[in-house]
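Encode chain A's predicted structure.
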Amino acid sequence: MKCFTLGYGGRKPEELLALLQSAGIRTVVDIRSAPQRSYLGVFSRQKSPQSGIEGLLGRAGIAYLALPELANEFREHDDWRERYARFLGRRGKKLVKPLLEVAEPIALLCAEKCFSECHREQLAAYLQRQFSGVEVEHL
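Encoded structure for chain A:
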């Protein structure tokens, strides 16, 4: 599995699409806790799949899957990395199953632009530990 990670923070929609298209992404997996909320409406998940992030990606031929159950509910804690790692240790295998059933390559999407400050880094590392052949690249 080829797995990219990407944060939309500070990016324009066309910049995000260019990154996804240049990497050949076929499915964006939104791992935000509340994809329906975003400071920029174009990155929010709307009621209509033709609007917001889903519409933006769909018009570019990229599938969209929201998995808020993989969100970082511990970001308000100083030790969020450790808490998220424990969370994945307990529930990860069940929660990542949908990632194995979508068109590849995938991109894990969150708001934080810098992957080292986001749970995308921990989730991608977890995938590499749990499944052989997982390649990760941070966009």
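The chain has one domain: 2-136.
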